[in-house]
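Field guide to reading this record: the first block holds the primary sequence, the second block holds the structure written as discrete tokens, and the final block holds curator observations. Each block starts with its own label. This record concerns Tetratricopeptide (TPR) repeat protein, catalogued under organism Agromyces ramosus.

BLOCK 1 — SEQUENCE
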Amino acid sequence: MDVHEATLDLPGAPAELQARLDGDGAVAWQQPVTIRTYEPAPADRYPMFLSRRVYQGSSGRVYPIPFTDRISTEPVEREWQAVHLENRWLRLMVLPELGGRIHVGFDKTAGYDFFYRNNVIKPALVGLAGPWVSGGVEFNWPQHHRPATFMPVDVEIEEHADGSVTVWCSDHDPFTRMKGMHGVRLHPDRATIELVVRLHNRTSETQTFLWWANVAARVHDDYQSFFPTDVRFVADHARRAITAFPAADRSYYGVDYAARPEAERRIDRYRNIPVPTSYMIVDTQDDFFGGYDHAAEAGFVHVADRRIAPGKKQWTWGDAAFGHAWDDLLTDGDGPYIELMAGVYTDNQPDFSWLMPGETKRFTQQWFPIQRIGVVHQANRDCAVHLDVSGGTASIGVAVAAELRGATVELRSAADGRVLHRWAGDLAPGEPHVATAATQDLPAHAVELEVRCGGAPVIRWRPRPADAATAEPWVATEPPRPADIDSADELYLTGVHLAQYRHPTRSPLPYWHEALARDAGDVRCNLALADHHYRSGAYDAALACVRTGFERLTRRNTNPADGEASYLLGLILRRMGDSAAAYDAFAKAAWDRKWAHAALVELAQLDAAAGRDDEALERARDARRLDVDDTRSRALEIVLLRRLGRPDEAEQLLQQALAEDPLDQLARTLDGRKPGRDARTLVDVALELAAMGERAAAAGLLERAATGAVRPIALYHLAVVLDEMGFAADARSARRAAAEATPDRCFPSGLDDHDALEAALAADPADLRAHALLGMLLYDRGREAEALAHWRATVDGGLDDAVTLRNAAIATFNATGDGDAAFELFARALALAPDDARLWYESDQLLARTGAGVGARLSRLAEHPGAVLARDDLTIEWCDLLTAAGRAGEARAVLQSRRLAPWEGGEGRSLAAWVRANLSLARAALPADPTAALDFADNALEVPRNLGEGRHPLAPTDEIEEVRAEALERLGRRDEAQAARAAARAPRDAAPAAGESTSGLPDYFATSLPELLLFDPPASGA
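BLOCK 2 — STRUCTURE
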């Protein structure tokens, strides 16, 4: 079968469920599906330290996730784990191996995919760690896109007493190990997808997060997105630019919409947006938005409480060559799509909210399909209505999410209640009411539409006045430099903003340091720095800061209103091994209601670890009383009840825990069930058990987790537990096994890993593997000099490891600026891995940064053509070097010889290389052969499909047109030459305004290919 004819066939329900489905029930089952798939290459064995990479307006830091930068160009038939949900109106498919995304959302009543169905799995390099697929619904947390979007989640089907079914998907996020869980739920009596979400901070630290449900919708000229009618303005990422909506009234993403005909200014139509564009609403009083396919007369509505779910966004690649190239990269034949994204606890990107230690946030989102009513003007969870009044006639549409028997639809005058239209009958999903009615020349805002059922109102809608004035919303500005800020309060808050929003290029530290330079005792800035140092594992520095702040805080008031300082002090002291002092600090923090729950959990764990079970149980119960959703205190209570000989109480509490969260891996472990598939999550559970004093159980889990990439770090943790149990010899054996384990893709992260590796080095300072792994963790946390010291110890100790040598090379250049020493380390790494294309690419980038000549770089790479052609970035670099050396013909041939794929945000590099090669050939041919010169210049205007990208509509072609004009002039084709020069000098849509960018990111979020960010400027020049 041709790849362009690939179709995704959905299996029918199993026989045992079909009867329930035939009886109008809701069913769910697991059954794999075979999908044509373009497989990603194996993840890179080198850690990616992309501390300054920009991603979706925020930090593109990817460590500790292994990085994937290549996708197969040939598909295979692959079987994917799939979970199917169905009722009489809807058919869904969830893919647990791809982050638990909804891949199919099908309206059976209309025969319409209201979510974009991608019939192939064709990743492109869009995701944080590389692969990302379009289509369906992606659930993005704790940042966008979901870091685990191409990773598996644990899955469980739950059947409820009311006949509904839920597919639960859960994982521990790769960065902070918070637990994210979403349930896709179908009810038997509703045509609604209900998403039930629980976000749990299972850590001891406050964390930040965002949540966006990213819905894809297939688009064409007749597809229209809709927001509530009071949305008059939309904003770019970080609110750096705004425009009117739905008709843009100014330059936005470089497109001068104000200069366009009125019909082409509407950005709710895909056909009118030529460039990649995001827009997010800035305010509304309504709870819905969605999209409508006028050709199919079908679409969908999203509904969620705007007070916690304010985010409503559209994104598109743009309806032009640039966007179409991305469509081709992401699908074989399913065409373009837009994203209609719904944010909870967030209304922009980046826009992060907070989760306290142990806190759980619960919320729901809902989608339901609509048919034949047009775009929606008002909606709630039960009903969506359309009411368009024009020329004395009202067009009425009513679609429902559940059956409404004996419903009435009434249009009346809002002033005197005169009935203009009345209909009575049954409404059901797929059976909307559509009608027209005379309005007796009443203006739209003077009529009201009401739907009732059983005498109760279902929805009521009165159009808003079209001329309602709306003030322009505020627009963000770049923060001043620290020295330019007068207020200590503003210095502190600016630093908080940069940290909370994970700013990729601006550090919060200079703002807090500036405040402390003016007032060394500033409490908030000292605590902010203490938290920063603590999270980096720099406990001594953290302790010094928190004590300075604490001294000021308690100088006159020994009982401050806020317990944060005491809680943070407790965390630091606990990590430093001073449990008694930590206990006192947590006890003081518990005086403050805000910190009481978190502090009580820490106290209970310290008691439990020390064998004070009665006291621990009391603390755990106090904590659970303050927050019943915290799974940590509940699990601790179960363990303690068992220890105290009260198994029946423990069992009752355990079953309650599993009923509330069937994918709580700690509860499953306590119940003797098989834990999840992720070895790293096994380590998480083991460490939770160890913190409760359940060291034998923790040791058993760590032994099971010691497989694959997790093996070395699991064994180092095992050694810590064995030492605590008094088994010193076994601990030494575990550390020897860790040091001898295959380290590929073992990327330690987090404070537990930090402490385990520090413990390993305290036990054996000559443990080279521990040095190498700790260096990775420290480098990721910004402690470059210390990381380099560990890597130098590894290298000097004789560990032949290409990964460590490469890491040391990068750190050497970034920390010291010594290019020669860095290159020597790369040379040693290449001696161990002579065919490693990444090493060749990165070492060549180092040569470029240190001023090496084109000839030297070319001759070096020429000896390894296989490596040159193994990576797109190195291939493009090679071609640019060939062009610069006067060998543009060779560069052009290479660019024509293979398929390339861009990174999102790094587009244009292959096209630029193509243009440079052709222009070089054109200029060289001009004097003697203007015909050939014209051919080359014309080729520069064309974009070969194999380059994997299209020319951005705003990209200048002036240089190409000038060369064309000169060639045409020499050929005597003066009219064409004049036209070419006119094209070169013709006004075009303006460059992006201040605060905008064509990539969809604000100007001070400069984007770049991630590989280039491995080399920062030397520390002395920072």
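BLOCK 3 — OBSERVATIONS
The domain at 3-226+280-370 is CATH 2.70.98.10 (Beta-galactosidase; Chain A, domain 5).
Confidence is low (pLDDT under 50) at residues 990-1012, 1017-1022.
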